[in-house]
Amino acid sequence: MASDSNRQQPLSSNEMAARLPHVKQPSIHRSQIEAIQSFNRESTLDVKPIHAYLKHYGYLPYSSSAPNANEPVGEEITSALKSFQEFHNLKVDGVFDNETRTAMTASRCGLPDMSAGSVAFSTIGPWDHLEIRYNIGPMSKHLTTDVCEAAIRRALDTWENAGVGLKFTPVANNDNPDFMIDFREANDPDYSMVGNVLAHADFPPGFSVVVDNPPLPLHFDDDEHEWFDGEAANKFDVETVALHEVGHILGLAHSGVNGAVMFPSVSPDFKLRTLAPDDQQAITNLYRTSTDPQE
C-alpha cells in the first residue's frame, strides 16, 4: 500500500482534456524519425517529425509550433527531449542521438506518456464499479481465434488477481460491455495506429480521451505488426500487449520503469506475464484509494 504522501490523485476530466488534446493526432511513422540526423539545440535542420512525435506523446504542449528548418532547434525541443530521455531511462542531455532515435522508433502503445512526479507509477482515474464487462470481437489473422482469445483472457486474469477486487465478465456486444477488444487495420478510424503503434486503449469513463462513452476501445494493429502467443522473431506477444492495454482500461497511465507492464514500448520476441511491483502499486493505489476507507 502506498503511503498517503505518495498517493497521486486521479486527474479530473478537465485536467485530462488540458493535458491530452493531441491524443487523436496522427502518429509519426518510424521511417520519418529514422531519417533525422543527430542534432542538439544549436543545430539548424528540419526537425518537424521529432517535434510532432514529442507533441503526440505529451512532451510538448498542443499549442507548440515546430521551428523552421533554417532556425536553431532551440530550448523547447531540447527540454522536451530531456523529458523523453528521462522517462525512457536514457542519458539526459537533450541531444537527439542514436539511443534516443532507437527509443523513439520502438514499437509502442499509442497513448501518451505522463510523468507521475515523485513516484514511478501514474494513475488517471478508476471505474466506479469493480465488475468490468467486456466483449471480444475479431481476432488476429496471424493466430487461431482460440489461441488469441486465451492469451487475452490470461491478461485479464492477471489484473483480476491483483488483489483489489476486480472481476472481468464476458458479454455479448449488444449487452452493454464496458470495453470491446478486437484486431484492426492500422488506420483505425477512432485512433490511428499507423507507424510504430502496436495497440491503443482508453481510460475509464470521466477520464476517457478516445471515445465519449463506453464501450471503450482496446484495439490491436493487425496490419503493420505480426502477432504470436509467446516469443518469436519479429512478432509481438498478444498477452504482453493485452496486459498493458488492459492497464489503461483500468485507469493506469504509462510508467517510466523499464520492465513494468505499463512501460510504453515493447520489443518483438519478448513476453511479460506478471505485474512488476510498480504496476501492483499503481493498481492498488488507484482502487484501494477509491473503494476503501482512508487509512
CATH class of the largest domain: Alpha Beta
Give helix and strand order, one letter per element, not per position: HHHHHEEHEEEEEEHH
How many domains, as an integer?
2
State the helical fraction.
Answer: 25-40%
Mean pLDDT: 88
Low-confidence stretches: 1-19, 115-120
Q: Looking at CATH, which topology of the largest domain would you report?
A: Collagenase (Catalytic Domain)
Shape: globular
C-alpha termini separation? 10 Å
Protein name: Matrixin-domain-containing protein
GO molecular function: metalloendopeptidase activity; zinc ion binding
Binding site for Ca(2+) 3: 221, 224
Binding site for Zn(2+) 2: 109, 244, 248, 254, 262
Model description:
The chain is α/β, with parallel strands linked by helices and 295 residues long. It folds into 2 domains: 28-109, Muramoyl-pentapeptide Carboxypeptidase, domain 1, CATH 1.10.101.10; 131-291, Collagenase (Catalytic Domain) (3-Layer(aba) Sandwich). 29% of the residues lie in helices and 11% in strands. Helix 6 links the parallel strand 2 and strand 3. Helix 6 packs across helix 7. The radius of gyration is 19 Å and the shape is globular. The relative contact order is 0.17.
Give a short summary of the structure.
The protein is an alpha/beta fold and 295 residues long.
Keywords, please?
Collagenase (Catalytic Domain), Muramoyl-pentapeptide Carboxypeptidase, domain 1, 29% helix, alpha/beta, 8 helices, 295 residues
Mind sketching the topology for me?
Layout: H1 13-19, H2 30-34, H3 48-56, H4 74-87, H5 98-104, E1 108-109, E2 131-136, H6 145-160, E3 167-170, E4 179-184, E5 197-200, E6 216-221, E7 227-228, E8 236-237, H7 238-250, H8 277-291
Parallel strand pairs: 1-5, 2-3, 2-4, 4-6, 7-8
Antiparallel strand pairs: 5-6
